[in-house]
């Protein structure tokens, strides 16, 4: 039997006060130096996972220690980004390794994209129920 967990969409409001429901996933993100609780937006349109600059700093990352440049597209194309590898724990699943483009862009959500979040998990969206379900990838 495949282990699955269902999560509810989270209510968010924009700068105009308009409310929407979005698929944010709560989880723990760990570097060699630190571990923090975060929430990531499941973004099927994002090519890669994107780590906001502030979260990288909270994890004890030092921008100058990373040499792999990553080119982002869309709204983030004008910001420098570097590749980082972190550990993520999503209850009740075993920890997984996630690769991020750590960007210097400010005030953006942590994005969970096709590389490599959607390569590690099977995700089913139940938009009419304002929920989504995760299962570790089928082998």
What's a quick, concise take on this entry?
The protein is mostly beta strands and 139 residues long.
Verbal overview:
By secondary structure, this protein is mostly beta strands. It is 7% helix and 45% strand. It is built from two helices and eleven strands, in the order ββββββαβββαββ. It has helices at residues 53-58, 117-120, and strands at residues 4-8, 10-13, 19-22, 24-30, 35-42, 49-51, 81-89, 96-103, 110-112, 121-126, 131-136. The strands form three sheets. The protein has a six-stranded mixed β-sheet. It has a three-stranded antiparallel β-sheet with strand order 1-11-10. Strand 2 (10-13) and strand 3 (19-22) form a beta hairpin. It is globular.
Question: What integer is the average pLDDT?
Answer: 95
Assembly type of the chains comes to: single chain
| Number of helical elements | 2
Major sheet strand order: 6-8-7-4-5-9
| Overall helicity | under 10%
């Amino acid at each position: 039997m495949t282990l699955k967990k269902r999560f509810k969409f989270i209510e968010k409001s924009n700068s105009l006060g308009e409310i929407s429901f979005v698929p944010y996933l709560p989880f723990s993100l760990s570097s060699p130096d630190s571990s923090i609780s975060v929430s990531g937006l499941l973004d099927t349109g994002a090519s890669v996972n994107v780590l906001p600059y502030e979260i990288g700093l909270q994890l004890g990352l030092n921008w100058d220690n990373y040499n792999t440049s990553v080119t982002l597209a869309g709204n983030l194309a004008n910001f420098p980004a570097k590749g980082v590898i972190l550990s993520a724990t999503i209850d009740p699943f075993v920890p997984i390794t996630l690769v991020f483009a750590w960007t210097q862009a400010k005030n953006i959500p942590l994005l969970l994209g096709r590389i490599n979040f959607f390569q590690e998990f099977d995700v089913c969206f139940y938009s009419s129920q304002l929920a989504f379900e995760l299962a570790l990838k089928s082998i």
